[in-house]
Amino acid sequence: MFNASEIKHLKLQTLKHFWGHTAFRDLQEEIINAVLQGEDTVALLPTGGGKSLCFQLPALLLQGVCIVVSPLLALMKDQVDQLLGMGIEADYLSSDLDEFEAEGIYDRCKNGLIKILYISPERLRNKSFLQHIEEVDVSFIAVDEAHCISEWGQDFRPSFQNIKEFRNEVKKVPIIALTATATPTVLVEIQTKLGLQTPAVFKKSFSRTNIKIITEKIADKFQKIFDWLQYNQNSGIIYARTRKETEELHQFLKSKGINSCDFFHAGLSYKEKQQKQAHWLQSNNHVLIATNAFGMGIDKDNVRFVMHLSVPPSIENYYQEIGRAGRDGQDSFAFCLWNDQEFNKFDDILKNSIPNKIEFTKILYYLFSMFQIAENELPEEYFQLNYQNLQRLTGSSLAKIKNVLQFLHNQELIYLNDFKDASTVELKISVDDLDSLPKKDAYFVELLFRCLPGITSSKVHFYENTLSDKMRIEPFLIKDRLKELQKQKLLNYIDGDMSSIRFLEHRNDRAYQGKYYQLFKQIQINKLQKWEEIKFFFRNDDFCKMKMILSYFGEKNAKNCGQCSYCERSKSSLFSNQTPDQILNVLRNKPCSLDEIAFHLSFVAREDLLENIILLLDSGLVKMLDFRTYTLA
């Protein structure tokens, strides 16, 4: 056994070797100590507080495999890639892995070759997983995004409640629950529903004193962002609600000569996403316009601002996203642009994306019918999903269909892939069957044998453009031939440019119309409530923005931050003498246009700035150099 001094040295040595740090952040070491001592633990650390280290480091020091329960496949992949890049043996089990791939991961766990294994909460009900895990030495369970266990959390996943039963009946090991966003009610629910035994609770304040929250009610958002980015020399993120918005804003800024920005969303290919992300991570002044999936699991210290083109769906989402700025402790900004028209529009979008029970049942009925899946049946293959066909059959909007399918995906009833990815092909015939095929088909299948190694024994991933170069056949012709052979049941082909779906549970209409519809309905109610809360947050001009966030998360006696848009307006209203002095301070550095002054004093309304400049011109303290530039007289 190690003594306390040796353990401390070992922790710091591990921190330095794998993470390159020489000291822990606030509460990290105390949380790690609790885990090492075998205590049930709850860690409530804001975004950027280093939650992952709190289970990853003790996982390396303890004997056995740490099982990490995570709700997001994208986050699992990102964290596993990061750990592997650091030389830490980690892997994940997900619904898109075939049986052969999963077996390999189980064997490596049993042989002690994996230290950290990521799984979804639904995996805890999987019979194959439960059989294999009996033979695995498990050190402890880490529950990431633990707020998902709460019915009042913003991402309710009832399958998180499987963790308590798994721990009690299968692996009696300690649990650490981690979250960045939990109200007092949610925090209590986490402890109760996980069955934690007198847990050590560590809670860091949600206050981010280095982030200045600036909210502005404005009609022309694109122009405002352009005005701001003209003078920006820092790295940042601009969040938009849709893929279309990211591309439109990028095109607008590019047309105005802003070249230090790019767009990022899930519709890009894996290669494109990797390239854009790598460029942003390595740059000091690059800006990414992204949908809200971007940023999870990414650690970039020098993000100087996060801007919201679109208001996020909840205060929890908003706080997580602005927390990606200023992780190095330096002054940073969180800008959010909003208007009542947008709020009213999103009210309608939300309402029109929620199907009633009849619509919900109809979408499911035609989803199964499209692929000829009968009651109690569970096909093994992937299917190409055509949203337009499902819209035509159901008469439902695309928004309602996607809402239902995303719900089924989150509950691991289906695996839905809406991302551009590599295509897959799996042969249903052997080499010996070639002679029985028509000459045209036999020739094409033989080309596949030559150009796609491994296709004779398993499913292979490939890109049509790459295969086109090898076969010297146009990509669209390759797709057509593969689809023809699929109709003849000679192979299974999934086009990576289209959505695909795989069913993970037997069809059970009674369950879908009963417990699953009730769960879907509860999640929609939560969603609407969260939206009302975030609207109130932005529309209310009577309180400090950071104080409102702290109150929402249960921090009592919070004080005004002194630097958000509310606090600055309180200090710099038109009827005080501070705004003219601040304008003069800006002009002492160099002559500026109104836009430049607005950039430096972003908390002051543009109309107030203009009126104060007129007062300064009348008093002779300021003069105009030309029709748009002001300087000291």
Outline the structure in words:
- With 633 residues, the chain is of the alpha/beta class.
- The protein folds into five domains: 4-203, Rossmann fold, CATH 3.40.50.300; 216-338, P-loop containing nucleotide triphosphate hydrolases (Rossmann fold); 347-420 and 501-527, Arc Repressor Mutant, subunit A, CATH 1.10.10; 423-495; 572-632, Winged helix-like DNA-binding domain superfamily/Winged helix DNA-binding domain (Arc Repressor Mutant, subunit A, Orthogonal Bundle), CATH 1.10.10.10.
- 46% of the residues lie in helices and 15% in strands.
- It is built from 25 helices and 22 strands.
- Strands 3-4-2-5-6-1-7 form a seven-stranded parallel β-sheet, sandwiched between helices. The chain has a six-stranded parallel β-sheet with strand order 8-13-12-9-11-10, sandwiched between helices. It has a three-stranded antiparallel β-sheet with strand order 14-19-15.
- Helix 12 links the parallel strand 12 and strand 13 (332-338).
Number of helices: 25
Q: Provide the CATH topology of the largest domain.
A: Rossmann fold
Strand arrangement, major sheet: 3-4-2-5-6-1-7
Number of domains: 5
What's the shape? Answer: globular
What is the strand content?
Answer: 15-25%
Radius of gyration: 28 Å
Query: Which structural category fits the helices and strands?
Result: alpha/beta
Can you summarize the main beta sheet?
A: 7 strands, parallel
Features:
46% helix; Rossmann fold; 633 residues; 7-stranded parallel beta sheet; 5 domains; single chain; alpha/beta; Arc Repressor Mutant, subunit A; 25 helices; 6-stranded parallel beta sheet
